[in-house]
């Protein structure tokens, strides 16, 4: 793994909410830290209500993690474009995040430890 990336199990129970709806809750979250960036919580796909997410055409590339695909979150009042990302086929060094989803930190989305 790139020496500046660490993946650890996030202790406790984590939830993600958007537009007043709970999108998911898990005790199997991962915490990814990368250099000086704030930690990111990754949720197992199986613990997220995928009915709230629409796959996007957006992609990005990280030289350390690989190619990311994106999802938009559909709430009652609006669509939060490209608010979720996933590494479907991450580099071997970060293979632990395969099958997990991460959510951008924004006013309309709350990722919290409960």
From TrEMBL:
**InterPro entries (alphabetical):** DUF427, DUF427_sf
Where does the source fall among the domains of life? Bacteria
Q: Where is the DUF427 domain?
A: 15-105
Spell out the protein name for this chain: DUF427 domain-containing protein
């Amino acid at each position: 793994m790139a020496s500046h990336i660490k993946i650890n199990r996030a202790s406790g129970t984590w939830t993600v909410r958007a537009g007043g709806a709970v999108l998911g809750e898990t005790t199997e979250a991962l915490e990814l830290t990368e250099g000086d960036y704030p930690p990111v919580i990754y949720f197992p796909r199986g613990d997220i209500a995928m009915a709230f997410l629409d796959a996007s055409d957006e992609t990005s590339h990280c030289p350390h993690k690989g190619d990311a695909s994106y999802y938009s979150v559909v709430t009652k009042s609006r669509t939060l474009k490209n608010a979720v990302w996933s590494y479907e086929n991450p580099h071997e060094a970060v293979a632990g995040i395969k099958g997990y989803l991460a959510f951008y930190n924004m006013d309309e989305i709350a990722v919290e430890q409960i």
